[in-house]
Specification:
binds inosinic acid; Maf protein; six-stranded mixed sheet; alpha/beta
Length: 218
């Protein structure tokens, strides 16, 4: 039996990862129009809720959305919810915080590289164990009227590599070494391996548990 969900993102990397992890469960993802709701909250949950409601109401049916990013403890958990366009911000030290925003208009792939350069530069001189980091994800399923049916949060732990390595994946994958990846960055893993251990995999396991209960409802 096929379960159909709209997918509330236009990030093709996320769509591929979510689609591939959910494939075995018989879930089919239906693309949505790009609507770019403004992510105004200072946390992942707040932004995930904004996206979920906006996309579900626009699509007119059950919609999966997520907000995700990298948190680096030594940088006061930056880039955090600002992960996607981190290098468009000035960054202040003591304490680490975001400063002025200068929108660059760079494409997603172009800015990914600049984001990685910036994190590596900010982490220069910081040694283990202070290079600890995690990928965080909040996933939401919303109904056409905006009601939130599922909210899951999960993480993948690791640390920041000394330099960029690997060609696979997207975003911060070239600088993130998982605690269980034997010193390889996520971008050095083949995509099936990343899909087995990532934050997205873990939250989709929670989603599958919810889906089982949801489908059994009278
Ligand atoms: P969002 O579209 O606002 O949720 O942006 C998420 C951003 O976090 C992406 O653009 C990436 O920079 C980063 N990110 C999220 N998940 C991953 C991942 O699995 N690998 C690498 N970077 C990620």
């Amino acid at each position: 039996m096929t379960h159909r969900f709209y997918i509330g993102t236009t990030n093709q990397h996320k769509i591929r990862e979510i689609g591939s992890i959910l494939h075995a469960t018989g879930c089919e993802l239906i693309p949505t129009d790009k609507i770019d709701p403004e992510e105004t909250e200072p946390d992942f949950v707040g932004n995930a809720l904004i996206k979920a409601r906006a996309y579900a109401v626009h699509a007119g049916g059950l919609t999966i959305s997520e907000d995700s990013g990298l948190m680096v403890a030594a940088l006061n958990n930056l880039p955090g919810p600002w992960s996607a366009r981190f290098s468009d911000f000035e960054v202040h030290r003591d304490p680490w915080r975001l400063g002025a925003h200068h929108p660059s208009g760079l494409s997603r792939d172009e800015i990914d590289r600049k984001n990685n350069d910036l994190v590596l530069e900010l982490m220069r001189g910081i040694e283990q164990p202070r290079r600890a980091a995690m990928f965080k994800v909040v996933m939401i399923v919303a109904a056409a009227d905006g009601e939130i049916l599922f909210k899951g949060e999960n993480e993948a732990h690791g640390w920041i590599a000394p330099e960029m390595r690997g060609q696979n994946g997207f975003g911060y994958d070239p600088i993130f070494i998982g605690h269980n990846t034997f010193d390889r960055t996520y971008a050095e893993l083949d995509r099936h391996r990343k899909d087995l251990i990532s934050h997205r995999r873990k939250v989709l396991n929670d989603f599958q548990d919810w889906l089982g209960r949801f489908l059994r409802q009278p």
